[in-house]
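task queued by scheduler; priority normal; single chain, no ligands, no partner chains; default sampling; output format set to C-alpha cells
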Amino acid sequence: MEAKAIARHVRVTPRKARRMVDLIRGKQAVEAITILKFAPQDAAVPVRKVLESAIANARVKADKAGEAFRENDLVIKETYVDEGVTLKRFRARAQGRAGRINKRTSHITVVVAQKEGNR
C-alpha cells in the first residue's frame, strides 16, 4: 500500500525545498518527521506538513481496505520538488524605474509506502 500527498504553490523556492527533500528520501516516515522538526531551515516546515499529510492519507487508505496500519512501517518511497508558478512583483525605484521582483513557488510531492516484507 502506498499513499501520496502533494502541496502546490508553496511559497518556498524549489532549490531550498529540494535540500530538505534530499535529507529525508528513503528514510522511515517517523524518522523523517523528527529530522524535519529539528532542521533549522524554513523550508522544513512545508515539507514536514506534506509528509504528515501523506502519512494521514496512508492511514485512511488502510482503514478503508481493512488492513492493519503501523506508522513505523512506512518508508518514504518517492519525494520530489517541482517548480511552481512565479509571482511577479514590481517595486517603484528612483527616477521612474520599476524594479522587478520574482517570487518563486514550489510543488512538493511525497509518496510513502510500507516496507517490503511487512504485509
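post-processing summary
- The longest helix spans residues 44-65.
- The longest strand covers residues 74-92.
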